[in-house]
Write a structure and sequence with these properties.
The structure is a single chain. The protein is mostly helical. The protein has a single domain, classed as Up-down Bundle (de novo design (two linked rop proteins)), CATH 1.20.1440. 79% of the residues lie in helices and 0% in strands. It is built from 7 helices and no strands. The protein has helices spanning 2-57, 65-80, 84-105, 109-113, 115-150, 154-160, 174-177. It is rod-shaped, with a radius of gyration of 24 Å. The protein starts with a helix and ends in a 7-residue tail after the last helix.
């Protein structure tokens, strides 16, 4: 009878450990989803600000139609993207278009003095910072989650219950990777 009791205790301990691992996998997967939703909120805000910004500058930038059209196309692609990889790529292209736009704005001193433009630009800059922080948080959660589903013994349960790796939200715009150049 004591061997049976020991067997039952061992099985109960292993089962409780398996439940703990499963629950931690679910918690991490939900944290990844939550972190992604935080990025999505900021991206929506960014996408909502861009048409207002373009409308504000249209009158000033009559010779820069291509720049404005590129931003509009990049924004549409970013809004329509669905997977993390697609969104990452589309948002990188949008960031590149906005970077080029900011360079072109330097040629329009009247535009840079426009209060509405300055307000929108400030909101967009603030949103870009929030996106950056949200992206960092998301990537941290993805790292924890991916590590958990790849490491022993949790990888066994992860495989049994179809927990799959998540993609990182990465920067693909080379201009964002370069250090800013300071000129005096």
């Amino acid at each position: 009878m004591s061997a049976f009791l020991i067997f039952v205790i061992v099985v109960a301990v292993v089962a409780m450990y398996a439940v703990q691992i499963y629950n931690s996998l679910v918690r991490l997967r939900n944290q990844v989803k939550n972190a992604w939703s935080q990025i999505d909120v900021q991206l929506k805000r960014r996408h909502d600000l861009i048409p207002n910004l373009i409308e504000t500058v249209k009158g000033y930038m009559t010779h820069e139609r291509d720049t404005l059209e590129n931003i509009t196309k990049a924004r549409s692609a970013a809004v329509d993207a669905s997977s993390v990889g697609d969104k990452s790529k589309a948002e990188s292209e949008l960031s590149g278009a906005l970077h080029k736009f900011n360079l072109v704005v330097e040629n329009y001193p009247d535009l840079k003095a426009n209060q509405n433009f300055l307000s929108l630009q400030e909101e967009l800059t603030s949103t870009e910072n929030k996106i950056s922080f949200a992206r960092q948080s998301y990537n941290d959660q993805v790292l924890f989650y991916n590590n958990k589903i790849e490491m022993f013994p949790s990888n066994i349960l992860a495989g049994m219950f179809n927990f799959t790796k998540e993609e990182f939200f990465e920067i693909e715009v080379e201009a964002e990777r370069e250090a800013p150049k300071v000129k005096f």
